[in-house]
Amino acid sequence: MKQLSRLRGMRQTSFAEMHCSLARSLDLVGDWWSPLLLRDLFLGARRFDELVENLGISRNLLTGRLTTLGEAGVIDRVPYRQRPTRYRYALTESGRELVPILLALTAWGDRWATPPGGPPITFRHRDCGHSFTPTVACSECGQPIEAEDVDPVPGPGAQAGPGTRLIGGFLERRSEPVE
């Protein structure tokens, strides 16, 4: 995982060295602006000024976030004009794989933090043409996943350490009845 020094300067804590996939993912896209930038790129914004206008983000902050996401391989920056040099931005394969996560988080927000008047966006599946509510499903059986349906177990890279102390003995005790 690439070091993200620009974003680090804005945070008190870095999760890049934690032996935890969630912590390391948050180190890349866990600030407030990055998911919104990724959302806007998914929705079709391509140019710096479009992102500034839609999000109301300062130009300096946007520059830093775009640089960080580019260094992490989440977005591509491609010149479209030479004098002065102007760039357009697009999601990489890594960035596109974040879209379902953003959709699921949006669905959670539609349920628990709905803006006045209801959800501002809905989603239609291109293959079947139906509107849908994004869900997280089991990759094996296709059933929707809820917290009570999941038993965490140590994976092949499990190590007890900062951010992963729950792996091992505690996970086994988790299934015991609480008294």
UniProtKB/TrEMBL annotation:
Listed Pfam families: HxlR
Keyword Transcription: yes
Keyword Transmembrane included in the entry's annotation: no
PANTHER family hit by this protein: TRANSCRIPTIONAL REGULATOR, MARR FAMILY, TRANSCRIPTIONAL REGULATORY PROTEIN
Domain HTH hxlR-type: 20-117
Gene Ontology molecular function terms on file: DNA binding
Gene source species: Actinoalloteichus hymeniacidonis
Identification of the protein by name: Transcriptional regulator, HxlR family
Keywords of this entry: DNA-binding, Transcription, Transcription regulation
Membrane-spanning ranges: none
